[in-house]
Write a structure and sequence with these properties.
Largest sheet: 5 strands, mixed
Structural class: alpha+beta
Order of helices and strands: HEEEEEEEEEEEEEEEEH
Helix content: 10-25%
Distance between the termini: 123 Å
CATH architecture of the largest domain: Sandwich
CATH topology of the largest domain: Immunoglobulin-like
Number of strands: 16
């Protein structure tokens, strides 16, 4: 009897934890026959895509995307974007992130049209964190006489996956590959970047690892303060000396 009572609780717990995992990721949300997919964090000034998928239960439908947020400097689109009379998907919207760190809210409304002229409305909202990025770089070389495509250059920072770029490279050439890692504001420290290539022909020009250091604050601030203090100290000394010699040259009146 106890086992029978525990099993339903375990099933409910599994659904609860799976729902929490979906909401924590924030990259996919669903509402009935509608699903919205896109990144939950992006780099400032980057362009990213959000896709709206609609099950084939409507004769046609329309999709509206509205972008909102506290500070959307440099973002686009700033007015509602429409896709009307759509009969098949997915429907992809290109969004440009602001030039400042902020949080964007993307509201999607899908209006489904049925054969009996009935309309169904679905609303979904996605939250996107716009963060600072760190540029990771690698130089690759193709020594062969063939152009190569689908070269996957993978970056890891301190042993953790940061991202990858798919590139093409011409025959007998060297190419620089950069990746904007959405790192946020990095704490002060030394970071090791490891680079991997999925092709045995392509070689890493500058080795498969390098390091960079993040300095917290401005290391030259103390010198700026010292310079300001020294400047005012020199002015005070000059004024004191000038006043001393001015008093010394002043004539003494006799009684």
């Amino acid at each position: 009897m106890r086992l029978r009572a525990i099993i339903p609780l375990l099933v409910i717990a599994m659904f609860v934890f799976s729902a929490l995992a979906m909401s924590a990721d924030g990259s996919t949300s669903t509402n009935g026959p509608i699903s919205v997919t896109g990144p939950s964090s992006v780099a400032i000034n980057s362009t990213f895509n959000y896709s709206v998928n609609v099950q084939q239960i409507f004769t046609n439908y329309s999709v509206i995307m509205i972008v909102s947020g506290y500070n959307l400097t440099g973002a686009s689109p700033t007015s509602p974007a429409y896709k009307t009379g759509v009969s098949s998907g997915p429907n992809t919207f290109a969004v440009k992130a602001p030039s400042v760190t902020t949080t964007m809210f993307l509201l999607f409304q899908v209006i489904g049209n049925m054969t009996n002229h009935a309309k169904y409305y679905y609303n979904l909202t996605s939250k996107v964190a716009v963060e600072q990025f760190t540029t990771l770089k690698a130089a690759i070389k193709n020594p062969s006489q063939f152009s190569l495509s689908s070269i996957n250059v993978t970056f890891k920072v301190n042993g953790k996956y940061a991202g990858s770029e798919i590139v093409k490279i011409s025959k007998n050439s060297t190419q620089n590959v950069t990746y904007q890692w959405v790192s946020g504001l990095l704490p002060s420290g030394v970071y090791t970047v490891n680079v991997y290539v999925n092709n045995t022909i392509v070689k890493l020009q500058n080795g498969n690892s390098y390091t960079f250091q993040v300095q917290s604050g401005n290391p030259y601030v103390i010198y700026i303060y010292i310079g300001i203090i020294a400047f005012f100290a020199i002015i005070i000394v000059v004024l004191f000396i000038a006043n001393y010699y001015a008093r010394k040259r002043r004539p003494k009146w006799k009684k």
